[in-house]
Specification:
heterodimer, A: 326 residues, mainly alpha, two-stranded antiparallel ribbon, 15 helices, B: alpha/beta, 8-stranded mixed sheet, 5-stranded mixed sheet, elongated
Chain lengths: 326, 599
């Protein structure tokens, strides 16, 4: 089983790393367009076709496929992700700068919403007549059905326009270089973070509720109740503990969804992270940047799932034994 | 079938939303006079001329919204069609063909499942640069893995069925079996997954269009948001520009999600327990039952079925239990035996309706609140669940689970409770209890799980212990060991429910026979096994190995109709009286429910 999982991750990793290469090679159009950008390409095509041929040779586009693939892989492993023709700088450099800001938003958002979702899900998943379930679950479903960036529009309307409490967007009030005041960043972080926490909490609470309800049908919960334990103890020791692994796995598998939502929210608040980078790249058709963003996100999702698997090994003695015997 | 009002209202709201949506998508002209395109003054607030105002170039927003429905919904449905077909194809092939096909298809599915959906869609849409259909296709191509997995699991279940086997035996090829026999059986699931896929595809399309990757010729709701965002609608506070598409997206996605969920899990009301169940005190005929430790009178249990009809599991049961007595309840599955134990512990699902009178010592168990009942569980009455299945929490050590009870009720410290747990495990016959108490349940054999559960019952110190099928799944050696342990419990009162007549004979002081929710015989053990009174009891004993395994199918009756004697259909000595339920009549120290003894 462990070997199966390792091979799954390896396969995913290879696939993700190769995906960009195959997209550039096999989608219709000259691969050179994707490397240079449409404008430069058309410009060169009309003015200096000879330079185009030279560039083709420089990028190795007339070498055999296998050689090109291996070169591309080697480049990725050395973090050479190409050249952004929009910013005029290496993609990897851009990504690392922007990644910091995305993480500043995404990490607290995931942690907070995972905790809130856990709590709400536990409360809503309790069987019987349950007021929390009656109120929270329809509410969560509605919030979940509203895309995160739409929620951002709504929150902006309420907090930034109607009451002028919080800034409309950006990351700092005065966009000077040098020392960035932490309090100001926090003020700018509040709205985007709230949007993400709100949306993901709603989603995760629904998942946790399902997990808790599932565990409540298990025989060992009847056993626990029959011992005369307090409901709190039954919930914490027997239900929550067993619902945790499926919950964490669901969070991990949906990490891509969560990150995707965060990207669009960044755009609304002009938060200068990966999302805005991707947005600008879309508008300028800056393909190397787009591919780089995707690569980072895909790696993050693989990492999240790996962590969830490790977590379930940590929490579940059955998986532990399986791992030990493998 | 009556639905709760809350659900009915939700259903009506769903129909209205989806109905409006379909009209908007099919015949937008019915809702608004003209297609968007005509220009008026820009940035007009909602008013008489333009119900929802105008956008940055002066187009009527209402007509944009209505005409956008077709695009948004169409993209969602198209993507869902692609995703669901692909998912079904992969799931069917993997689930039915199995072997290498299964392995590699599932590997591929896992890889795709790990790709972040929206970023991949953005990437592909940017590279492809190809209109609405292209976007829908890309969304569909990235959204199939979830469906494939669920379909595969479902197909694997369906293919176990006999009709598949017989179709195979008649020489049907894999193609025809998959399409003709399996597909119709997974159809509800496919429909549910398809609806949910449409919902998430609409979200994805809106996201892609919001980023400006949408088709400029077909303006969906997402594209409206893109316009509002990039043309300053957001920054200028033109809420009327972006609120309507947001509401439309949410309402549509919510409706589709709800429909999909209800298709996926139609019976959302799962059985639950541990809540106080209303117990109407029955008539208590005679007050003097000081001898009994437990006195049950007129106990009935009904289960509310999803269609709101009642199913009777226990019918007016009386039971008297004296201190130190060992009672065994026998009867076929579904006769209400296990329900009886759960009813005494108040552990029945919330759809159970209980009535009657349960007296424990001088406590009226029927009327005490749940909080007080918790002090009865595990302290006054202990429950030993069936060892088969998952009676033990897989994530906690056995020692912990045994000690838990002592900690809760006897105010022992952690160390003391652990020591007592080890002691109890030893008494219950677990070898090396010190080491084994630190093991997790999955390392225990079936017999050991059963013994650990008995240890759990022992540690409580409760004077009454209820055992549910204590010998189920045990080999003879383990069963003898268990009998030995149980027989050694002096001073404890025990009620066991079992199919195992040999166990009953060696263990019981008194035997209670249940048949279809009713007690049909109560006899002292020796007398019962010498000469059972009820024809059903006779049949049970005759089927025992030492009686030569005689199968008593005296006359084949139809299913029990609920009126009359439940055994009448199978009884050799039935008479016309058997059409009415016989009373439970006393015969010396025995009681029997049969017209033979009624006169």
């Amino acid at each position: 089983m462990l070997r199966g999982k390792a091979s799954r991750y390896l396969l995913s990793l290879v696939f993700v790393l190769s995906l960009n290469f195959f997209i550039v090679q096999f989608l219709p159009g000259d691969p050179l367009v994707h490397l240079l950008g449409e404008e430069t390409y058309v410009h060169l095509q009309t003015r200096n076709p000879h330079a185009l041929t030279e560039l083709r040779a420089k990028h190795g586009l007339n070498r055999p496929m296998v050689e090109r693939y291996l070169t591309a892989m080697a480049d990725i492993l050395r973090l050479r992700l190409g050249w952004s023709y929009q910013y005029g700088s290496p993609v990897s450099q851009l990504l690392f700068y922007r990644l910091k800001w995305t993480l500043l938003l995404l990490v607290p958002a995931v942690c907070l919403s995972a905790a809130f979702g856990l709590l709400l899900g536990c409360l809503a998943g309790r069987p019987g007549k349950n007021r929390v379930d009656r109120v929270m679950t329809p509410l969560c479903l509605t919030v979940y059905a509203t895309p995160a960036y739409c929620l951002a529009f709504l929150l902006l309307l309420v907090f930034a326009f109607s009451s002028d409490l919080l800034p409309l967007g950006g990351m700092t009030g005065s966009a000077q270089t040098g020392q960035i005041p932490a309090g100001d960043v926090l003020r700018h972080l509040t709205l985007p973070l709230s949007v993400l926490v709100l949306h993901n909490t709603a989603y995760l609470a629904i998942i946790m509720r399902g997990a808790v309800r599932q565990v409540f049908t298990e025989d060992y919960v009847v056993t626990a109740v029959s011992k005369g334990l307090k409901p709190r103890v039954v919930m914490a020791r027997h239900v929550l503990l067993n619902a945790l692994a499926p919950y964490v796995a669901a969070v991990a598998i949906n990490f891509g969804f969560i990150a995707g939502g965060a990207l669009l929210v960044e755009v609304v608040f002009s938060w200068q992270g990966m999302g805005s980078l991707m947005y600008e790249a879309v508008l300028a058709r800056d393909y190397p940047v787009l591919s780089g963003c995707f690569l980072i996100l895909a790696l993050a999702v693989i990492g999240a799932n790996l962590m969830a698997d490790l977590f379930s090994t940590f929490i579940d003695p059955r998986v532990r034994d399986d791992a030990a015997s493998a | 079938m009556t639905l709760p009002l809350r659900k009915l209202r939700a259903g009506v709201a769903l129909v209205v939303v989806l109905g409006l949506l379909c009209i908007a998508a099919a015949v937008p002209g019915l809702l608004v006079p003209s297609a968007p395109g005509a220009l008026d003054r820009p940035y007009m607030r909602p008013g008489p001329g333009h119900l929802l105002g105008t956008d940055g170039i002066g187009q009527d927003l209402l007509s944009e919204l209505v005409y956008g429905a077709r695009i948004s919904l169409g993209a969602g449905l198209l993507a869902s069609l692609v995703a669901t077909s692909l998912g079904v194809l992969v799931g069917l092939a993997a689930g039915y063909l199995r072997g290498l096909w299964d392995e590699w298809l599932m590997r591929m599915t896992d890889v795709f499942l790990l790709l972040p959906g929206l970023p991949l869609i953005i990437l592909l849409a940017a590279y492809l640069n190809s209109g609405l259909a292209g976007i829908a296709l890309v969304i569909g191509l990235t959204a199939w893995p979830g469906t494939a997995r669920v379909v595969r699991a479902n197909v694997r279940q369906v293919r176990q069925n006999n009709f598949i086997r017989s179709a195979e035996a008649m020489g049907a090829g894999p193609m025809s079996i998959m399409i003709r026999h399996i597909l119709p059986n997974i159809y509800p699931l496919v429909l549910a997954k398809g609806t949910l896929a449409a919902a998430s595809a609409m979200v994805a399309e809106a996201g892609v269009s919001f980023l400006g990757l949408g088709d400029p010729h077909y303006r969906s709701w997402g594209a409206m948001l893109h316009e509002a965002f990039t043309s300053g609608g957001l920054l200028n506070g033109c809420y009327w520009w972006y609120l309507p598409p947001i509401v439309c997206i949410s309402a549509t996605v919510l409706s589709l999600t709800l429909v999909g969920q209800s298709l996926l899990d139609p019976d959302d009301e799962r059985p639950v327990f541990g809540k106080s169940v209303p117990l109407q005190p029955g008539s208590d005929g005679h007050k003097d039952h000081s001898k009994e430790i437990l006195y049950v009178k007129d106990l009935s249990v009904d289960f509310m079925k999803p269609d709101r009809t009642l199913f009777r599991a226990i019918d007016r049961l009386d039971l008297r239990v004296v201190t130190g007595e060992r009672i065994v309840v026998i009867g076929q599955s579904g006769s209400g035996k296990s329900v009886l134990l759960l009813a005494l512990m108040r552990l029945l699902p919330s759809n159970a309706v209980i009535s009657g009178h349960i007296q424990w010592k001088d406590m009226d168990l029927a009327s005490i609140p749940e909080k007080s009942f918790r002090k009865v569980r595990g302290r006054e009455i202990a429950y030993v669940p069936q060892g088969t299945g998952s009676a033990l929490n897989p994530l906690l050590t056995v020692g912990y689970q045994v000690a838990e009870q002592a900690k809760a009720h006897q105010k022992l410290s952690k160390g003391e409770a652990k020591e007592r747990a080890v002691e109890m495990l030893r008494r219950a016959g677990i070898p090396e209890p010190e080491r084994r108490s630190r093991d997790y349940p999955h390392r225990y054999s079936g017999g050991m799980v059963q013994r650990a559960l008995v240890a759990m019952g022992l540690i409580s110190g409760a004077p009454l212990i209820l055992l549910d099928e204590p010998t189920k799944g045990l080999d003879p050696e383990n069963r003898n060991a268990l009998l030995h342990i149980l027989s050694e419990m002096d001073g404890k009162t025990l009620i066991a429910v079992t199919h195992d007549l040999e166990f009953a004979e060696r263990f019981a002081h008194e035997v209670v026979v249940m048949l279809d929710s009713r007690v049909v015989e109560v006899s002292p053990s020796q007398a019962f096994f010498n000469k059972p009174l009820h024809p059903y009891s006779e049949a049970l004993l005759k089927a025992q190995p030492r009686h030569g395994l005689q199968v008593v199918t005296l006359s084949e009756g139809g299913p029990y109709q609920g009126s009359g004697c439940a055994f009448a259909g199978r009884c050799g000595s039935r008479s016309s009286e058997c059409d009415a339920v016989p009373p439970l009549v006393a015969r010396g120290d025995r009681r029997v429910r049969c017209w033979r003894y009624a006169s």
